[in-house]
Amino acid sequence: MHTDPTCIFCKIAQQEIPSYRVYEDEAVVAFLDLSQVTKGHTLVIPKHHAKNVYELPEEVAADVFKRVPTIAKAIQRETGAIGMNVLSNAEEVAGQTVYHFHIHLIPRFGHEDGFGAKWITQNDAFTSEELTTLASNIHSQV
């Protein structure tokens, strides 16, 4: 397992820094985000250090994502959340501030609960031909 001795999340995973853990096993740690965007806001991290989704090995991703539903359901049961945002930021432009892959589980309690994920759709910005070409080009990179 790869770790980075300068990474705050690696230090949390190794219990060098205290956290409010909600789950831990051999591969993953989940703990309450100190910012608590909404009650129960939890971060799920692999113990293996990877900067973000671009550097995340497939087997580590499988470890993390296999556990997300169990943790999310526990948060929902405890908080009474009626929804959940599941997100990860990659790179500064996307809002990443800690460069260790992590998933935010943000319980939702209504439209006025303090969190809003909003984007502006561009339905008319791309023609069917442009979307077909884009899909084909992405497919060829997989």
Automatic annotation (TrEMBL):
**EC number(s) reported in the record:** 2.1.1.-
**One Pfam family from the UniProt entry?**
HIT
Is Transferase included in the keywords of this UniProt record? Answer: yes
Q: What class of enzyme is it?
A: transferase
Q: Identify the Gene3D superfamilies for this entry.
A: HIT-like (3.30.428.10)
Where can the motif Histidine triad motif be found?
100-104
Q: Name one GO molecular function term.
A: methyltransferase activity
Q: Where is the HIT domain?
A: 8-115
Q: Does the keyword Transferase apply?
A: yes
- Which InterPro entries did the record assign? HINT (IPR039384), Histidine_triad_CS (IPR019808), Histidine_triad_HIT (IPR001310), HIT-like (IPR011146), HIT-like_sf (IPR036265)
Q: Keywords on this record?
A: Methyltransferase, Transferase
What are the GO BP annotations of this UniProt entry? methylation
Please report the name of this protein according to its UniProt entry: HIT family protein
**Native organism taxonomy:** Bacteria, Bacillati, Bacillota, Bacilli, Bacillales
